[in-house]
Design brief:
The chain is of the alpha/beta class. 36% of the residues lie in helices and 27% in strands. The protein has 2 domains: 243 residues, Rossmann fold (3-Layer(aba) Sandwich), CATH 3.40.50; 64 residues. It is built from 11 helices and 13 strands. The strands form 3 sheets. A 6-stranded mixed β-sheet has the order 5-6-7-3-8-9, with helices on both faces. A 4-stranded antiparallel β-sheet has the order 11-12-10-13, covered by helices on one side. It has a 3-stranded antiparallel β-sheet with strand order 2-1-4. Strand 8 and strand 9 form a beta hairpin. It is globular and about 65 Å long. The C terminus is likely disordered.
Length: 340
């Protein structure tokens, strides 16, 4: 049986920008106006990848690595300098309106909701914009209300929502028209643990029940661990890694460190900890645990901790994404040097 066509297909995609050259010194700004010299900046350089139907792919990198530029080209907002891309069989920058009815996009630091309208009214307006049939809209909204727990703030103006509530509203808005592809740019940024878990559960449910393909950019390794089997790492505009997420995290991510403050000065026995867990008693009520990333995720670690003690506070050091990418890059350079 032939394999299905990829949802996203990118070949040698490149996007450059011209940046005005700055001059130092007292009259540097005047010299820049007079000379009009500029430098070419490669935001994305010659990247190639495919995403198959039903995949949940993490797309990670440091700030300025090229993640958002890639996303904007796939949504049709930017036109590439060279290379090609198809999304659901369409060229995004040429068939943007056609594509908009088949993809959903969530930007963690922006909203597609109307700031002064109640959330319910924003969702109904989007229904008419996407021309979603009434029964389909009712079914999708009911699912979002249940899984994302929207009812307590459906009548609240968007400007009065907390960040976590607004993100849940944006997710509901993005799935009203049953998109085949969901693009998520930092969907859990700034959220607490409970809000992150609720959003991750929703995305897992959507992928499992509807087969929705997802491309997720994030700085949170917990998102990658909980949601993605495949990860692509972009650094300085170039694709440095494309493969199994667990293998990447296990090799470069280090242990997960979780500090807990327990209620009522409880005692935690350190003698019989599960495999892959070490613990240390710091003060009367605080403890530090380290979890082997090959055996545990941050979510499963926190869930286990809640079974052994009543927790007042939890702090997670899930590893530095920047350090992981740096280690990966250094590893690539070392391998190339050894080959040469």
């Amino acid at each position: 049986m032939p394999s299905p066509d990829p949802i996203v297909s990118v070949t040698c995609l490149t996007r450059t920008f011209q940046r005005r050259r700055l001059h130092r010194g007292r009259f540097g700004a005047l010299r820049a106006l007079a000379s009009r010299q500029s430098d070419t900046v490669n935001a994305v350089s010659d990247i190639t990848f495919d995403i198959q139907p039903g995949e949940m792919v993490g797309y990670i990198g440091q700030n300025g690595a090229g993640k958002s530029t890639t996303i904007k080209m796939l949504c049709g907002i930017l036109v590439p300098t060279s290379g090609s891309a198809t999304v659901l069989g369409a060229t995004p920058w040429r068939q943007r309106k056609q594509l908009a009815h088949r993809i959903g996009v969530v930007f963690g630091q922006r909203t597609q909701l109307w700031w002064d309208l109640p959330l319910r009214d924003s969702l109904h307006l989007l229904r008419h914009m996407y021309r979603v049939p009434g029964d389909r809209f009712a079914e999708n909204l009911a699912t979002a209300r249940e899984v994302l727990d929207l009812d307590p703030f459906l009548a609240t103006p968007v400007r009065q929502l907390s960040l976590g509530q607004r993100m849940r509203g944006d997710l509901a808005a993005a799935i009203l028209h049953d998109p085949d592809l969901l693009i998520l740019d930092e969907p859990t940024i700034g959220l607490d643990l409970l809000a992150k878990d609720r959003i991750r559960d929703f995305l897992r449910t959507l992928n499992r029940t509807h087969g929705t393909t997802m491309l997720l950019t994030t700085h949170d390794l917990g998102d990658i661990e909980e949601l993605c089997e495949r990860v692509m790492v972009i650094d300085a505009g170039r694709l440095r890694f494309d493969g199994n997420a667990t293998a990447l995290q296990h090799q470069f991510g280090g242990d997960i460190e979780i500090g807990v403050d327990v209620a009522h000065d409880q005692t935690i026995a350190l003698a019989n900890l599960p495999t892959g867990v070490t613990g240390e008693h710091l003060t009367a009520s605080t403890w530090m645990f380290r979890f082997d990333r090959g055996l545990w995720t941050s979510g499963s670690a926190v869930r286990w901790l809640t079974t052994i003690a009543e927790l007042r506070d939890v702090s997670i050091n899930d590893g530095s994404l920047e350090q992981m990418i740096r280690d990966l890059y250094l590893s690539d350079k070392t391998s190339a040097h050894n080959v040469n």
